[in-house]
Amino acid sequence: MSNYIERFSTRQRVLHWIVTASFFTLVLSGVGLFSRLFNGYFNFFGGGQNAILIHKIAGPIFFLSSAYMYLDHRAEISSFDSNDMEWFRKAGGYLSREPHHFHIGRYNPGQKMFALFIAVATLVLGITGLFIWVPTAFPRWIVQISLMLHGLMFVGSIMFMVLHVYLATIGNPGTVQGMLYGDVRKDWARHHHPRWYRERTGGK
């Protein structure tokens, strides 16, 4: 009998890594546009013009793949029940030395909030990116607002991503295994996502 249970399908994992790769490509190619302090990052792409070109290519890839990933998980990340509220009240147990056990489904509330933020950020970055792409085609005030919103979402997305990577690795050992290999250990699933585990195993 296997000690593992499938958490993500191959399609879901490939989609996740496309979103991840395009996101970090956008960060590295766009950070030099955000501030002159980071112009050195243009060297990764052979100069500023190449970085802008790659940024424009990675943008639509990120937008489409991120939007598809949200639609694929919309039902699971858009609903919050009393168990989720209990998780929020106790901050997921991260701020307490006492052990906490929550009746959590496939995603905990923190993961849901992250996914919803990325969905909103994807929409805002995509729309504002269009205005910034061809600034002479729109009124100046629209372009200026777009630049401000694009920058704010850029910073916010990096902050959320750093937290996401930490919680998926050091913060919760065993979590990233599901996205790397598709399967997670059953004891990990029972501990972190007991309701989802019971649903997958027929209530066992």
Automatic annotation (TrEMBL):
Cofactor(s) needed for function: heme
Keyword Membrane in annotation: yes
Sample GO molecular function, one term: formate dehydrogenase (quinone) activity
Transmembrane annotation, as ranges: 14-38, 50-71, 114-135, 141-167
Example of a GO cellular component annotation carried by this entry: formate dehydrogenase complex
Subcellular location: Cell membrane
Classification via Gene3D superfamilies: Transmembrane di-heme cytochromes, Chain C
Membrane keyword on record: yes
GO biological process, one term: formate oxidation
Residues annotated as domain Cytochrome b561 bacterial/Ni-hydrogenase: 7-182
InterPro entries on file: Cyt_b561_bac/Ni-Hgenase (IPR011577), Di-haem_cyt_TM (IPR016174), FDH_cytochrome_b556_subunit (IPR051817), Formate_DH_gsu (IPR006471)
Keywords recorded for this protein, A-Z: Cell membrane, Electron transport, Heme, Iron, Membrane, Metal-binding, Transmembrane, Transmembrane helix, Transport
UniProt membrane topology term: Multi-pass membrane protein
Predominant place of localization: membrane
Family stated for the protein in its record: Belongs to the formate dehydrogenase gamma subunit family.
Name this protein carries in UniProt: Periplasmically oriented, membrane-bound formate dehydrogenase, cytochrome b subunit
